[in-house]
């Protein structure tokens, strides 16, 4: 056995870090998949809602589009339980392949109903892979390098996202939305297939004593044990409470950003493209900074930076109410999204070793609840409140989450005899 592992144990020095050859190989594959994913990311995550609006989507449709990612996460604890101790790779490969290929249908029909329906398909599939992906990363990268390697992968994508955001804006403005959607589906699918060539080279973190295999529990018992993890772990409980508040505030403003840009400021696709360029520049810089912050200081600090950025973003629409305000706000959202992307994973990896899938299932369940309510609520409020008032409400709710995250934390309560986890600084 030791002889068979000798190749993977060989050490190399890359990117200023010492790592095994297998870790470097995984990074290269992850890097390539991230590059291929860039076009899908730009089209679906940044232009999909404006495209739907231009093809006749109502405010309610926009609310549903904004709620779809959250609704897709409502069953995440169920998928985490079904995954149990199995390899997470199939739970990443097949749902993402189906979801990303389905975007071609939206490109073919270009109707508001199809835009909404496909959004739900994509995000339902994302909900299946959501708890599996972070669990897979714990087996792909070693803990002491994970923050920087995840950051570098996303930085590579960020370099492409900046010109792609501008190109897609001009492209769709000149030729329509069909081919950007179809090509995004093809590139997104290729990225999943490539990424799933990574090898699970890291040992699975040991689960705390008294935490049985999820596959041996009933659904009710599994749910109880998942929530018992929150009761026993103050750091996780505060994280879930804070991200719920700040996340709700951010999602409350989400569809209003799109409506304000298209209906109030009458921005064209190429102008929207420039706002996305600003977003991706900030995202890129934030990945560099936050990846370093996570490894050298604390995931908690990185999350605090992101939550503060989410709180400030809607206020800029109120203060400026102009194209300039949109650009600066998009930069704050880029910082927030970078922190949410790698900060949430790093934080949960640290406070719930061996139970990441369970913790992420709960995190995504709460995201599903707040993300289902917030966008539909905010679009409904546009009939009785001004857009500026909705933005102010969003900022106030987000600030509550920042306050919760400032509360003191202590190590999680462990069963007798179990080793303590280092306190989250």
From TrEMBL:
Organism: Alicyclobacillus sacchari
Superkingdom: Bacteria
InterPro entries per the UniProt record, alphabetical: MFS, MFS_dom, MFS_trans_sf, Sugar_transport-like
Membrane-related topology note: Multi-pass membrane protein
Residues passing through the membrane, by range: 27-48, 60-82, 102-128, 149-172, 178-196, 235-257, 277-294, 301-320, 326-349, 361-381, 387-407
Cellular localisation: Cell membrane
Keywords, ordered alphabetically: Membrane, Transmembrane, Transmembrane helix, Transport
Name of the protein described by the UniProt record: Sugar phosphate permease
Annotated Major facilitator superfamily (MFS) profile domain residues: 235-425
GO cellular component: plasma membrane
GO MF entry, a single one: transmembrane transporter activity
Coiled-coil annotated residue ranges, if any: none
UniProt xrefs under Gene3D superfamilies: MFS general substrate transporter like domains
């Amino acid at each position: 056995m030791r002889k068979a592992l000798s190749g993977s144990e060989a050490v190399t020095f890359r990117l200023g870090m010492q790592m095994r050859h297998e870790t470097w190989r995984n990074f290269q594959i992850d890097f390539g998949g991230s590059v291929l994913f860039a076009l899908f990311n730009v089209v679906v995550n940044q232009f999909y809602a404006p495209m739907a609006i231009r093809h006749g989507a109502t405010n309610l449709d926009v609310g549903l589009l904004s709620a779809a990612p959250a609704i897709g996460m409502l069953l995440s604890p169920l998928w985490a339980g079904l995954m149990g101790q199995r390899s997470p790779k199939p739970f990443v490969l097949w749902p993402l392949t189906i979801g990303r290929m389905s975007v071609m249908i939206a490109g073919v029909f270009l109707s508001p109903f199809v835009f909404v329906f496909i959004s739900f398909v994509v995000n339902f599939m994302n909900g299946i892979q959501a708890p599996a992906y972070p669990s897979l990363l714990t087996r792909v990268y070693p803990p002491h390098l994970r923050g920087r390697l995840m950051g570098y992968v996303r930085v590579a994508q960020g370099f492409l996202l900046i010109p792609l955001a501008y190109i897609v804006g001009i492209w769709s403005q000149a030729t329509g939305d069909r081919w950007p959607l179809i090509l995004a589906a093809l590139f997104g699918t290729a990225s999943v297939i490539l990424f799933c060539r990574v090898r699970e080279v890291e040992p699975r973190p040991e689960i705390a004593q008294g935490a049985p295999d999820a596959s041996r529990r009933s659904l009710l018992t599994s749910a109880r044990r998942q929530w018992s993890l929150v009761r026993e772990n103050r750091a996780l409980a505060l994280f879930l409470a804070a991200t719920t508040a700040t996340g709700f505030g951010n999602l409350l403003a989400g569809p209003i950003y799109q409506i304000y840009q298209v209906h109030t400021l009458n921005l064209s696709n190429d102008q929207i493209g420039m706002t996305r360029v600003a977003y991706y520049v900030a995202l890129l810089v934030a990945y560099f900074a936050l990846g370093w912050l996570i490894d050298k200081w604390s995931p908690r600090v990185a999350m605090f930076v992101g939550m503060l950025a989410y709180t400030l973003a809607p206020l800029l629409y109120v203060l400026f109410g102009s194209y300039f305000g949109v650009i600066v706000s998009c930069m704050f959202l880029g910082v927030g999204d970078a922190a949410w992307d790698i900060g949430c994973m790093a934080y949960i990896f640290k406070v719930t070793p061996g139970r990441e899938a369970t913790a992420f299932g709960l995190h995504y369940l709460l995201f599903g609840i707040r993300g289902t309510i917030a966008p539909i609520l905010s679009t409904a409020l546009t009939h009785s409140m001004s857009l500026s008032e909705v933005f102010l409400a969003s900022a106030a709710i987000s600030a509550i989450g920042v306050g919760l995250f400032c509360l003191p934390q202590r190590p999680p309560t462990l069963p007798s005899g179990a080793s303590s986890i280092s306190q989250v600084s």
